[in-house]
């Protein structure tokens, strides 16, 4: 319970602290004010009940008609308060949701947490991206609803109990085992006792709902993720006739949803068996309890209805916990999921291992670096290596040796390892085998991650020409979306290399970034790149010797923790 409250407090601070969060507080105050005004209308309606039924009992037509007019006036005010309140609450929700989402996104991107948290096995965090979308929404939705209701209910309770106290002046007198017992103002005591017992039963019956709601969210997210993944890999699935396998996976994930849903439905049914009859009787019981006073002539008919109405309000207000149990369970579940996510994201930004430090002499050096997989399997040993600025290198090693892991370690992304990597204080560009083309037009794809307006039209055209892709320039926006999806692997790699022409980094680390090009194309694009950036350092990881790079040093990593000479193509390679 304390943990849930501290999660809620932490997340609420993030809601208030973000952009628009303080304006949200004004909305919160307004919504609360309207809620409290609504309580005053309810208090007035209790008094109206006595006036109306007393007028009825006296058969006073004028007074009855006046009370009917007052009733419609009160209802009109109540409706206006309710509608304005729910509109302002929606404005509040979007403000706080934005603040919370921005805070979650900040942590998600800081220190590349989105990368470090990609494996569930590594951190126990499922579908973190969906937490940003779904849990931020659920949390703010439930928080604003439940917090405002809690405060208005406390105020309402005080008002209604005060009314009930002033009305129920009569005691309940009975004898038990020969002892005469008299409970003064028993209607006031009966209300909380009734609700306390009912809340206890509700909590006992509904306790498993929190974990079931938590699990439901997770399974729904797993299902959505599998569908999104299929969309991303349609081509590979279609070529492999993978429909049956995909269908199987989706069916499995949906079965998991259905299983948990059944558990949720069963539990809600059990809870409903108690809360539903409770809900139905809560409005009648007060009348039955006050009947002895009416039947003995101590209260008028109007008084009986007024006491009934006041008791009803006390019980309904106290029962808020019972009726809101499911919402409170969802609030608690979303708060703990989000807090777990934020904590994991903050933890992911801790210093990377191997240690990345600034190199003293513009060189890139590896000292005593050893890497292992997230599961703890040690990768092939790495020798101490040193890369001089302005040179070109080709690194070769058997498949699975750990070349890509090494590139990620240099980029500061590989946290599983030890040793020290000295990096030059220069701009480094890393190109993976499968380049990422963001959504947007061709300029956006080429300028990524810079903004498209950062470069002149001529620069884009030159970059495209250097990689032999000038024809793409003619493709306008809607057609580009289709063209982007249809780009071959080699064309995507060329576009990624065109980005290097635009950004002109000092160090270029290519991890099989030309693997999809034919030898002629590779010779052309690498030759053009080296010519355009003569002072840059090239580190190229590939299974075959690079073409077009000019003079380079070759490093073959072996499983004996060392390098060995590579047979040089004549006149091009110096071995290390
Ligand atoms: N996220 C991960 N979780 C578990 N194992 C991983 C992960 N990433 C890489 N590995 C493992 O680490 C080893 C090295 O992978 P890496 O991609 O660095 O190899 P590589 O030398 O680049 O191979 P290739 O030449 O085939 O691209 C492989 O056995 C791979 O399965």
TrEMBL record:
Kindly list the residue ranges recorded as spanning the membrane: 27-47, 68-88, 150-174
Ubl conjugation recorded as keyword: no
Ranges for domain ABC transmembrane type-1 come to 29-330
Start and end of every ABC transporter domain? Answer: 364-576
Q: Gene Ontology terms, cellular component aspect?
A: plasma membrane
| Membrane topology note | Multi-pass membrane protein
Keywords attached to this Swiss-Prot or TrEMBL record, sorted alphabetically, are: ATP-binding, Membrane, Nucleotide-binding, Transmembrane, Transmembrane helix, Transport
MF terms (GO), sorted A to Z = ABC-type transporter activity; ATP binding; ATP hydrolysis activity
Localization terms from the record: Cell membrane
SMART domains named among the record's database cross-references: AAA
* Claim: tRNA processing is one of the keywords in the record: no
Q: What is its main location?
A: membrane
- Looking at the Swiss-Prot or TrEMBL record, what is one Pfam family this protein matches? ABC_membrane_2
What is the protein's name according to its record? ABC transporter ATP-binding protein/permease
